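Exercise 3.2. Students should predict the tertiary structure of the chain below and write it as structure tokens, then compare their answer with the key that follows.

Predict this chain's 3D structure.
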Amino acid sequence: MKDAIASLQHDSRCLFIIGPTATGKTALGIKLAKKFDGEIISADSRQVYKGMDIGTGKDLTYPQWGIDLCEPDHEFNVSEFRKYALNAIVNIQKRNKLPIIVGGTGFYVKAILNPWETMDVKPNIKLREKLDKFSVLELQEELIKVNKNKWDLMNESDRMNPRRLVRAIELAKQGSDPCKDKGPTLKDVLIIGLTAPYEFLYKRIDQRIEERIKNGMNEERERLIKKYKKLPKTLWGSGEHNYARRQMSFFRNLGKIYKINWIDISTQDIFAEAIKLVAHWETRKPDSV
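Answer key:
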């Protein structure tokens, strides 16, 4: 881990493509990877799980880092992702290729750019044993009581995930501040953000869900439920609409720390605009960030 961070300090150029769900981040990432000799690292907390393909929208036609990392009943956390992603970035850079981090999981993106101190906090076993007896509703109520801000930032999947609710309560009980930063580890980044008016975005979300249902999303979910006792749950429809709003809120806040080059997918040529940004970034000196 230390070796990876040290390497990043010397050569840390990374491209990020972020934004809410259904904005076409992966499609853009693939096009840019082909044009600029890059490799994609997925920053999606749902795509790390094996077997959750249709429901999470994995593009299995193009090789990517960060997908199918563990079984669905494993609690894959942001600390694990950061360690994995940093090593992937170093691997890609050593082969003189461009790391392209693509995803809408804000905490995954922030973990690479500007990690916080609680990321590696060890679990409180006694507290977890107590909380294991709580229902999901009771866990939700407890988290709202001890850390309302954390609750507001969680997506629908995490709000229904007992393990992540327990972790959030655990950090709050230990007096940890999830917003306290260690400081950036990457020197030279370009962040492209995809956005759209919510009405436009909601239509894309609904269309995508309909397509996934046709492709067997519900059947995939039933197979996983039968195979595993615990699963990271995913809510669709209005839940995805709310998730998109929270994603945008998170990335707007991230924009207070890092410059995000926003592209409106409803009015702009996404690929053409992205090419201009990347081409300019690749030709200028790193010190001019």
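Discussion points: The chain is about 50% helix and 10% strand. The radius of gyration is 19 Å.
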